[in-house]
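Researcher: We're teaching a course module on how sequence relates to structure. For the next exercise, students receive a sequence and then see the predicted structure as tokens, so they can try to spot secondary structure elements on their own. Here is the exercise chain.
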Amino acid sequence: MISYSLAMIRRRLCVFAVLGLAFVCCQLPALAQVDWADSEALEGMPIDELVPAVRADVSSADNAFLAAAKLALDRVKAERRTALFVDACMGLVRAHYRRSEGGAALAVAQECVAAPAAKTETSGYVQLRMTEATLLMLEGETERALADLRGILNEDLSGVDPAVVRGVQANYASALKLSGDTLMSLSVLSDTLSEAIKHGEAIEQVRLGNNLVVMLEELQLYQDAASWIERLEPAIQQVPGAFPSRSLRLHAIQLHGILNDRDEAIGRFRTYIDDMPRESPVMVGSAYEYLADALFAAGEYSQAADASREAIQFLETSPIEQADANLALARALIALGDFDTAQNAIDRARQTNVQQGESLEAMNELVLKLGLARLGEQELLNTLDDMIDLQQSRERVREQQHTRYFDAKIEAAAQATRVEEMEQQQALLQAQAATSAARVQSARQTRNLTFVSATSVVLLFGLLAYLWSQRRFEREFRTRQEALTAELEGEVEVQSQA
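Model: And here is the predicted structure for the students to work with:
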């Protein structure tokens, strides 16, 4: 089995939360490479082109790129282009984060959230707040980030882009993970990814999937991670050049080495590195890190050291990742007996001011091993390795217990869902029965009304006929009465004359 650094995996969980999930709405097309050092050209570039170009760059982190990101935001403010405000803010935040300037990235995010321009577009405003909370999480303020993300989810998000809402949910899952609620985190992220597979675009699916795979690997749920990658294969094929797609390909090789064949995985790592464009140094460097781990597990310490050196070169723009590569190099050099060079590698890792607890733990472990190796205390060194293996074994047992509990929760939820569906079906049948009874009653009432109406019509016609005959009789009576009166008056007049 390949032995992977939990420190690297856990940190990658946070890295992907920021680089992927916090920018989940930024599905920009690939743009032509821009010379960030050409300040004159950047000044003359239309702002509608400059901001997307900054957002589309997925690897630059030098001073020129940072200056370009600042220029983009300043020009958006000066030209009052509120529609581009969120994108410009996110570009500058990401530029600072790549340089391991978390405090500066957080300051930019907080300033942008407080700006009136951020509130002109609902989805963009939620996205900025999500980014601020994520950066708080990475700066160690997990509880505050958790509260902010929970607050966003409790609001009315009906007018917000569903992809942004899923991004908030995914970052909420990351915050839950860092706060120690692993099971709830896994549940939230799994549900969010399932929703994205149903309704989201491919780029969103691979971003969320990449984060979930990293979490599953940390929990040593390797088979589950492999299953999710297989399920995400259609999305990966749609966006093969995207950063998370390439990362998932790399994790697929890693999992193949763990679950199936380590030697075959080593060969596939080398093929992956050869095929990877050198315009993606972070991915190439990460591939070399995984290759170094696999070679070390296979006992190929010299080749593992060479792979670690390659990783260090490609990860120049990612100081935290570079620190991990230096620790991997030190581990291989200790195994080779090159203690002085190993000490130099540890010192270089220490110079990055690593603040992640797992990395500090790995560094302290290597320092202890190096000291024992220098003293020739092989027996103590073996004892230390046994203790580390025992600790890892206990962690695996604990995670397996958590996994069984998690599976039980899923099964209970599934049973509850089935019961709910049966209840809904029963309610539907009852409603249908009630509807049928109502229809029968309505038909009976309709027939009764029809009979009553027919009878009423007959009576009405009879009454009308009676009234008509009565009026005709009255007219004839009056006519005859008038004629008789006239006749009598005539006779009276004749008699009077006689």
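Model: If you want an answer key for the exercise: The longest helix spans residues 378-497. The radius of gyration is 40 Å.
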